[in-house]
User: Which sequence fits this backbone?
């Protein structure tokens, strides 16, 4: 199998459109991790991602008859732009079906490269269904984003370039994983020529389809997929990629949203490039690997797969970076409601720690509940020592550093608790960013349920984050999720979340 793929990679037609991107040394990261860290700069491609390689190579293999029919794909992101550019360069008609929630910047980027855009459905599955329907009706040639040998071969040229650019020993190459086309191509080439090099996949923790498949020994479909790193938000690893990955990928590492945000900052500090979350994923995995294994004085390569991020998202990424670096602790602390309490609290924290955030609202005359961010050291047990010091000073403390409700909503909901929360149930949602999404939500609720809390946040993604409180009669508590299931928005019940209990 590997020999077959290596031949296809060596013969791949990518350089009529794609660049041989540089392998940049990450000097700050290398010093910090005590290893030689290199970043493969696929963010420098003409479409700002590696996807142009696979799309162009696949189109180059088409017959004239297939080209004359025109090409089509379903995509909300980088594959769409890569295919649009490849088709324009070859003079081929291209149609891209995108979900209606696709950010306008990506829609306009595809149109600017000459492709016709059709907006259909609220999710990728609906867009894909319509694209395949058009294949049947119009005879278009479908170009898959990752589940195809020619696409895999095109992406595999990245592995070929890495070995050419760095002929010296390499300990491991870290590859972001969505559908698996990129890691399959890199693994096939690298393991055939240099089997001593580890090929390590990195996935978003809430979209880890390859990790699940490797553990099961077969492809599985995830029930839910997180959308923060939207470039790798795939529910099932591709059939063709898994044939390679199951035998030639050494391991899979998963990274949290906070860890990905920290890696975006790391890449910026070393290269001044603003990676998209899926582009920074591989560096997030590299950092976790070094921390877990203690490897040092070795060469580690990660692939920055793209830089197609919305400007609006940068605020959210910056907000979560310090948490991802473990440089900030988010705590709920009870302090006596009397003059001088805040000053005494700060004395316990100590002069060496900086308060990064402090949210407080008067609730009653006995105890104040504060939401506080404190700067901590990432390299030792500083957070644990801080919590212990507060507890020894008789401050009740709840650690909210890993609490998504607290980080996404509570920190923005100043104002404190209300005494009138009878029969309140709290749910957290992801709403598709399109007109009518809120109305659709409200139409599916029982009309006698009062909305007691509503907080919405968007950070340039296809989905907004919403926190909703419902006042529901006790005898109807058992049916609420029957109504929510009909809406088809992802949701989480948060009524027992300590952050809600303490602050709302």
Assistant:
């Amino acid at each position: 199998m590997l020999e077959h793929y290596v031949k296809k990679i060596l013969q791949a037609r990518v350089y009529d459109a794609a660049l041989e991107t540089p392998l940049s040394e990450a000097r700050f990261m290398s010093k910090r991790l005590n290893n030689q860290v290199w970043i493969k700069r696929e963010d420098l491609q003409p479409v700002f991602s590696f996807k142009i390689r696979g799309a162009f190579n696949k189109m180059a293999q088409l017959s004239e008859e297939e080209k004359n029919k025109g090409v089509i794909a379903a995509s909300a992101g980088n594959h769409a732009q890569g295919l649009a550019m490849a088709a324009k360069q070859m003079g081929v008609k291209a149609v891209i079906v995108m979900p209606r929630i696709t950010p306008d910047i990506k829609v306009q980027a595809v149109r600017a490269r000459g492709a016709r855009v059709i907006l259909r459905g609220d999710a990728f599955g609906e867009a894909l269904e319509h694209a395949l329907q058009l294949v049947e009706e119009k005879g278009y040639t479908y170009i898959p984003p990752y589940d195809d040998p020619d696409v895999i071969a095109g992406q595999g040229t990245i592995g070929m370039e890495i070995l050419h650019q760095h002929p010296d020993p390499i300990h491991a190459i870290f590859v972001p994983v969505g559908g698996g086309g990129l890691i399959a191509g890199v693994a096939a080439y690298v393991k055939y020529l240099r089997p001593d090099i580890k090929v390590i996949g990195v996935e978003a923790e809430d979209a880890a389809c390859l990790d699940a498949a490797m553990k099961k020994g077969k492809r599985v479909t995830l029930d839910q997929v997180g959308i923060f790193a939207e470039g790798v938000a795939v529910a099932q690893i591709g059939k063709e990629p898994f044939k390679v990955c199951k035998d030639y990928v050494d391991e899979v590492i998963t990274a949290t949203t906070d860890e990905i945000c920290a890696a975006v900052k790391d890449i910026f500090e070393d290269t001044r490039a603003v990676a998209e979350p899926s582009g920074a994923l591989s560096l997030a995995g590299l950092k976790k690997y070094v921390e877990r294994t203690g490897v040092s004085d070795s060469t580690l390569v990660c692939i920055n797969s793209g830089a197609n991020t919305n400007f609006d998202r940068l605020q959210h990424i910056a907000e979560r970076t310090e948490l991802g670096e473990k440089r900030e602790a988010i705590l709920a602390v009870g302090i006596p409601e009397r003059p001088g309490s805040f000053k005494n609290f700060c004395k316990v924290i100590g002069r060496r720690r900086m308060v990064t955030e402090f949210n407080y609202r008067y609730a009653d005359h006995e105890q104040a509940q504060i939401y506080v961010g404190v700067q901590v050291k990432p390299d030792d047990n500083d957070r644990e020592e801080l919590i212990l010091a507060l507890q020894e000073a008789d401050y009740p403390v709840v650690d909210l550093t890993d609490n998504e409700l607290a980080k996404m909503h509570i920190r923005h909901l100043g104002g404190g608790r209300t005494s009138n929360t009878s029969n309140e149930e709290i749910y957290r949602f992801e709403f598709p960013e399109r007109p009518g999404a809120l109305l659709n939500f409200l139409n599916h609720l029982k009309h006698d349920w009062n909305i007691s809390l509503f907080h919405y946040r968007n950070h340039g993604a296809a989905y907004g984050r919403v926190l909703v409180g419902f006042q529901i009669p006790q005898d109807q508590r058992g049916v609420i999720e029957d109504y929510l299931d009909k809406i088809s928005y992802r949701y989480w019940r948060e009524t027992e979340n300590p952050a809600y209990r303490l602050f709302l």
